[in-house]
Specification:
1 helix; 9 strands; globular; mainly beta; Jelly Rolls
Length: 153
Amino acid sequence: MGCGSDGGSSGSGGGGTAYRCVDDPIGSPNNGTDYIQIRNRSGKEAIFGFSPLNIPSGATIQFVRVTYVAIANGGSANIKAALRVRSNVYTQPTAQALSSTWTTYSYDWTVNPRTGVAWTVAEINGGALEGMGVYSGNGDESVTQVYVTVVYR
């Protein structure tokens, strides 16, 4: 899949090349130089895998955040942040209406959506958190950046 083409669910599992289209450095999205586009494909996801993280033992996980930079292409469109935990995809409860300009959005999971309780270091470091991405609501959306942040103390 090339950048700018219909993302559908490609990139799911971290395979394919779609992640190159959304892997801009944190805080430096290129706003459309490269992107994935999910055109009129409600219910399609673009999930990107990553290696287990290395949170210090004894830390308390505050939340897991998915951040993405997206745009509605001509008309209304909405999208949800998504996480893959133990092979299941979970999305934020309410879709985010997108702007007609490139805008940064994020959603925080304060609890593990699979278990319903606070995240643990073992889950994060052990690979239970397998991927992050976006889930198409409706319309014609493009995404130029997506990343996950784990905030702990």
